[in-house]
């Protein structure tokens, strides 16, 4: 069965964005880009909430073609162009979208059906609201949390709506020169 793997930057105090969605505090450098580029070949599907999907659609289809595009932008744009996309949204339609499935209801049934299809892993980049819904349904298999050396004090929380203890197994850690620490966890199933 395919795994649903959650990638998210977080502040040390557990926020994924400021109150207005600000993400200018996220540290990213070539070492971190190179690391993420080792994960994308292991996935053939990207899952997003509507807001993140629209942000990605506005950037990645053209990012690799820009004259000043970096190696990472070219590689990630090529990956983005070929992977299937799943969008959790009640407000957009699949009409006119290429290689994109919109899930608007029956979250657990729809995501489990996608996970049971043949293929590689499914990656979630960001999408805090969608991730909260997926977590509450027990659909996330692994987490890659990129802890940034910053305290925000307030903002959009990394985890919201967790109503019971959820145990995780630490698989690995990685420290980046920019000060970010990656924590790789898998869900502990009883």
Summarize this structure as a short list of keywords or feature phrases.
Dihydrofolate Reductase, subunit A, 8-stranded mixed β-sheet, 190 residues, alpha/beta
Describe the structure.
It is a single chain. The chain has 190 residues and is α/β, with parallel strands linked by helices. It has a domain at 4-17 and 34-150: Dihydrofolate Reductase, subunit A, CATH 3.40.430. The protein is 29% helix and 29% strand. The protein has helices at 30-39, 50-63, 71-82, 107-116, 128-136; strands spanning 4-11, 15-17, 43-49, 84-88, 100-103, 121-125, 142-148, 156-157, 168-175, 181-187. It has an eight-stranded mixed beta sheet with strand order 5-4-3-6-1-7-10-9, with helices on both faces. A two-stranded antiparallel sheet has the order 2-8. A hairpin with a 5-residue loop joins strand 9 and strand 10. Helix 2 (50-63) packs across helix 3 (71-82). The chain is globular and about 40 Å long. 24% of the residues are buried.
């Amino acid at each position: 069965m395919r795994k649903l793997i959650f990638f998210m930057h977080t502040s040390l105090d557990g926020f994924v964005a400021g109150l207005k969605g600000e993400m200018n505090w996220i540290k990213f450098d070539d070492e971190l880009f190179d690391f993420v580029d080792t994960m994308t070949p292991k996935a053939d599907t990207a899952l997003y909430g509507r807001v993140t999907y629209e942000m990605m659609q506005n950037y990645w289809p053209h990012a690799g073609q820009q004259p000043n595009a970096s190696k990472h932008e070219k590689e990630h744009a090529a990956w983005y162009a070929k992977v299937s996309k799943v969008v959790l949204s009640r407000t957009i339609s699949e009409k006119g979208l290429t290689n994109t499935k919109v899930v608007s209801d029956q979250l657990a049934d729809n995501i489990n059906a996608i996970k049971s299809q043949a293929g590689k892993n499914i990656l979630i980049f960001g999408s805090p609201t969608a991730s909260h819904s997926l977590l509450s349904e027990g659909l996330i298999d692994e987490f890659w949390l990129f802890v940034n050396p910053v305290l925000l004090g307030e903002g959009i929380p990394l985890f919201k709506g967790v109503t019971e203890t959820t145990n995780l197994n630490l698989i690995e850690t990685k420290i980046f020169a920019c000060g970010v620490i990656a924590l790789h966890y898998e869900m502990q199933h009883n």
